[in-house]
Structures
1.
Amino acid sequence: MTRNFTFGIVGCGVIAPTHAGAIKQIPGASVIGAADVVRDRAVEFARKFDISSAYGSVEELLNDCPCDAVCVCTPSGLHADVAVKAMRAGKHVVIEKPMDVTTEACDRLIRTAKETGRKLTVISQHRFDLGTRVAKQAIDSGKLGRIVLADASVRWYRTQEYYDSGDWRGTWALDGGGALMNQGVHTVDLLQWLAGDVSSITAHTSTATHERIETEDIAVALLKFANGALGSITATTSAYPGFPVRIDIYGTEGSLILEGDRLREMRLKNGEIYEGERAAAHALSVAQGGTKSVEEEAVHATGAASDPGALWGDSHRDQIVDFIAAVNDDRAPLIDGEAARKPVAIIKAVYLSSKTGSSVSIS
C-alpha cells in the first residue's frame, strides 16, 4: 500500500459486515461511508464499524463521499445498477457475489469498466483459500493429468424464516435464483476454474421444502466440459442441518477432494499423498519455493452450511488486497468481470435447461 485507500459500502445487510471487517484488517485501508435505502440501518452500521458518514441512497454517497472505491452489497439484482453508477462517478468497484442475476447485466458491467477505466472485481473469495490454491497449482502443473470427472455439491440448509426475512430473497428479479445462484455460485465458480470451461448442461430444479419463494431450493445438473470431462452440480437449501461444500476432481494421474473450503485429500499415482490443511500448506510452500511457512498458510473453515452469517473475512481480505494492488499497479484484478461472468452464465444455463427440458450450450 502506497497511500490510504478508502471505501464506501452500499447495502448494509448480512454481507456488509464481512466487507467492513475485511477492510479493517488491511493496513492503509478504511471505510469512510455507508449507504442503505433504509437510512437508519446505514446509521447503525456506520456507528458499529466506526464509519464517519451514513447515507440514505447510493446517489448521496457518490455525491458526498470522497472514497476511492465502492463495495456493492445490495440484493443481487441491483448489483449492476449500483456498480454502473459508481464507476460513472469515478469509483472503482468491488461487487459481492454474484456479479448480477443475468448475463446481460454482467456484460453491461464489463462494458462500463472498459469505458470508464475503473477497476472491477466480483467477490470469489474461495479462490484465495489455501486448499483451492493447492488444488489449482496441482491441476495447472499437470499433477492430476487430464481431468475426466468433476463434481460439486452444496448441501446447505436455510429455514423458512431466512427467506421471509427479506422480500427480495427467493425472487427472480432480485435474488436471481435460489440455492444455486445465491448459495451455490461460489462453488460453481471454483468448479469451472479448476476443471475448465463448461460447454453444455442438462439440469432439473425444484422447490421442495420452502414456501413463498419463486426460485428453486434444489438444483441438479449434469455437465460436459470443453476439455471432454464430465461432471455434476448439486445445490440445495433443504439439506438439514447443512453439510460442508464439496468438490471432487478426478484426473488420469490422481484425484483431490475439497471439503468445507479445505483440501481434504489429494492422492497422486506417483505416490504423493496430502491429507488436511497442514499437508496442503506444505505442498503450496514447496510449489512457491518455500516463500511461506506452513504456519503462515493456516486458514479457517466456515460455518456457512447452516448459518448465512457465519462467514470469515480472511479470504475477502485477500481478494480486496489484490483489488487495491490492481488499482495501484493499473492492472486487472485476479478476478475481473470476464471471470465473474462465467458462473452466472453456467447457472442461467441450468435454469434454462430445467425450464425447457433440453441440453443448453454455454456461450
2.
Amino acid sequence: MNKPAPRRPGVGPHPLRLLRRSPLATLGAVIVLLYALAALAAPLLAPHPPLTQYLEERLDPPSAQFPLGLDQLGRDIFSRLLFGARLSLMVGLVVVVIAGVLGTAVGMAAGFAGGRVDHALMRVTDIFFAFPSLILAMAIAAALGPSLTNAMIAIAMVTWPVYARLSRAQTLVLVRQEFLEAARAVGAGDLRILARHILPNALSPLVVQASFNMGDAILIAAGLSFIGFGAHPPTPEWGVMVSEGRDYITTQWWVPTFPGLAILMAVTGFNLLGDGVRDMLDPRLRRAT
C-alpha cells in the first residue's frame, strides 16, 4: 500500500486552504474585502456627492433613487457611507501602524535589554493599561483638541501597550535561543539581531493583534466622533452620522440605523478575519491540517 509522501518540515497547507476550513473567517475576509473595494471605488459607486443636499426630499425613506434614504439635511446616506468607509479604513490603518511600530519597539527593547530598562518600560505600559481605553482616548483627544487626526493619535496612544506586551513576551523567548548566540558569535550587533532575527520570528502574534486592532480602532473612532471628540459635521464619518441621526431613531429609523450597521459589520469582519489569521499562523493547527 502506497504511503503518502511526508510533508517537508515547516511547509504547511496553503493559507487559502486553511481559510476555507473556517466559514466564519472566510466571511470576515469577504466583508473586509468588500469594505476595501467600496472605499477605493467610492467616487465611482456613490450615486450622489456626499455633501449634496436635496432639501425637498429630506428624510425620505429608502427608494430607487436613494437606496438607503436621505438624512435630516437631505443628503444621500448610501453615498455618505461609501465615503465614510474611506475614513474608517484610514483610521484603522493609521492607528495600527502607529501603535504597532511604537508598541513593538518598546516591547522588543524591554525584552532584549532586560533589567532596569525592562522594568521601567513595563511600568509605563502598566499605567496605560490601568485606564479604560475609551476613557483614556477621550482624555487625550480632549487635550489635543477635537479632530479626526487627534482622535487617531489618541487611539494609537491607548492601543500600543498591547503590542508592547506581545513583542516583549516573544523577545524573552527568542533571546534564549541558540541561533541568537550563533549570530552574536559571528559579530552581529544588537540592532541587527533585533531587526533580522527577533522581529521576523515575533511577527505572528503581532499580525493577529493588528487584525483585531483594526476593528477596535474603527469602533473607538466612531465613539469619539459620536461624542464630539473626533470628526465633525459635515464629514461623512460613521460616528458623526449616527450622532446626527440619533434624534430620528423612532421616526426616520434609517438615518442612524444604516451607519450603525456599517460600523457593526466592519468591526465584525475584522474580528472574524483576525480569528482566521490566528488559525493560519497557529503551528499546531498547521500540523493538524
3.
Amino acid sequence: MEQHLISVDLGGSKVVVAMGRLSLSGEIIVVDAVSKPMEGFTRGEVTNIEHVTSAIREAITELEARQGVKVDNVWVGVSGRHIVCADNSGFVYVGGSDGEITDRDVEKLHENMNNVQAPDGKVILSRIPQNYKVDANETIGSPVGRFGRRLETTFSFVLGGKVALERIGKAFQRAGVAGTHYIAGAIASAEVVASEEEKESGVIVIDLGAGSTDLCVIQNKVVRYVASIPVGSAAINNDIRSTAIPAGMIEKLKTKCGYAIASAIPADKLNSSIRINSRSPHQKNKEITYRDLTTIINARMLDIVDLVNSEIRSSGYHNRLPSGIILTGGGSRLAGVDVLFKEHTGYDVRLGGAESDISAESMEGTSAPELATAIGLLSIGIAESGIAPTEYTRNEVATPEAEEEQGEKVVDSVVQQPEVTKPTKEEKRGSKREKAPKRPDGGEGKKGGRWLRWLNDVVFGGDVVDDEMQ
C-alpha cells in the first residue's frame, strides 16, 4: 500500500506539486512541495501543451529527485469556465415491510445516483449528497431509523469539460504521469481552509487565483455549491500593462505597491508616486501614483466581486452563511482585499490558508494561501485512497536561500524545517493564523520563516525600497 500521495495545483501562472503522508494520529503531513512558473494554461484550460507539459515535468522531476520517489499517479486540482455545478434528484421505495429505513435503502439510493451519466461534453468530478426526504418531508443528516415508504435525495454533481480534462491528461501523460484524479480546486481549498465550525454554520471559501476565481459554499458540513469564475488576478496585470509599465515589473508593482481599495492606502503614500527604474539607458523611468495604481486594481477587483455576488445568489445559500467569506489563494495577498470584499458583499471576511488537520511534522509555511489547493488535494486524496498512516521523521532540506549563499543553483522548492514538539490542534490552529501574512511584506502578521521569505521573492520579485523599483 502506498504511503504517500502527490497533488498538483495547476494555476494560471505556476504549477505547484506537493507530497503528503498520513501521520499516526490521522493528520496530513505535508512533506515537500515544488513550485514552477507555467505558461500555456489560461483560465483553467491548456492553450499550449508543450509549455504546460514542460512545467509539470520540471516540477515533478525535482520532487522525485528530492524525495527519492517515482510519481506515477497524481491528484489534480482543476478550475476554469468548464467547471459547473448541477443538481439531480432520485428516489427509492423503502424495502422493509414496516417502513423502517435501513442502511441498505440508503445504499440502493446512492447506487442509483452513481449511475447517473454526465451530459454530453462533460465529466462528473464529484457526486455530493445534499439532503434526504422521507415521504416528501426533508430530513437533516442520515435518514436511517426513520419510517416512511419513499426515500428521496438530491445530489450535487460537479462537472468538468471533457475536452479540457482530456488536454490536461495528455499533458500529464507526456510528462510521464500515467494516472490522474481530478477534483475541483474550489473544493480542495475549502477542505483545509475552513474550520469544522465554519463548515457547520455556513461559509464561502473564495480562492483568488491568477487565471480564475474559485468559489465553494459549505453548509452543515456539506459542499452545497461550486463555481469557477474565469477572471483572476492576472487580469489586473493586463490593465496595468495599458499604462506602459514594463511587463517584467507589473507583478512586482501590483503585489508590492498595490492596494485593492483606496481606503487601505497609508496616508503618507496617498499622493506619492512609485518610480520604476528603466533597465535600459535609452528608456525613461516610469512613474505611477499609488492612487492611480489602486484605481486600476480596484476597478478589476470590483468586477470580480460582482461576479462572486452573482454566484453566491445562484447558490441559494446567500442568507444561510453566518461564517461569511474566507479568502485564500495568491490573490488574497493583495493589501485591502478583505476590506473590499466585506464592503461590497456584506459578509464578514477573513484571510486564510491551510489550517485544518495539518500535522506538526509538516514543512514550515503550510499556511501560505498559495498552497491551499495543493494541500487540500492531499487531504482529499489521502482520505479517498486509503493511504496507510506511517511514522515520519522530517529531514532537513537545503533552502534556495542557503544555496544562493553558497553560490549554488537556486531551486524553486519548499523548505522542510527541523523537528518540533507537536502542539495541540487548537494551539496549532491559533499559531498558523498568526503566521499567515496578510500581504507580501508581512503586513499585520509574521512572514513564517525562511521559506515564506523565499516565496515572497519568487512570487513577488524582490524588495521595493523607498517607493523605487529597480
